[in-house]
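comment on this one:
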Amino acid sequence: MLGAALACAPLAACGGDSSSSAPADCTAVAGDAVTLVARNIQWNTDCLKVKPGEAVHFTVQLKDEGVKHDLQVFGHGVKQQTPLQSGPATQQLVVTLPEAGYYQYVCTIHANMEGAIYAQ
């Protein structure tokens, strides 16, 4: 049970749940570009709000020197990711979230690095 509580903790931080409505404190992506920063084994934000059906251009800045990270975005039939890479480095990922709803992003090797994406 503790594992389930810990897995939900990052989503609670942005007031989110798996519904399709973004919480008020969720970061709205201006235009179609967003920068995610991996530093100290965490993302700089844990909640994003985007428009469905449009490509989202992720710039991923890996700031942890010598630590491998990646970015995986998934949900509603989407599953795309960058390669694992040691920082410092910058990666790019373009993902189209085809429908309104809830998606997620993670670093696949650091369980605490996860966030919610609301396409609405």
Q: What stands out?
A: The CA atoms of residues 18 and 102 lie 6 Å apart. The two ends are 32 Å apart (CA to CA). The longest strand covers residues 110-119. Residues 2-119 form a domain with the Immunoglobulin-like fold (CATH 2.60.40.420).
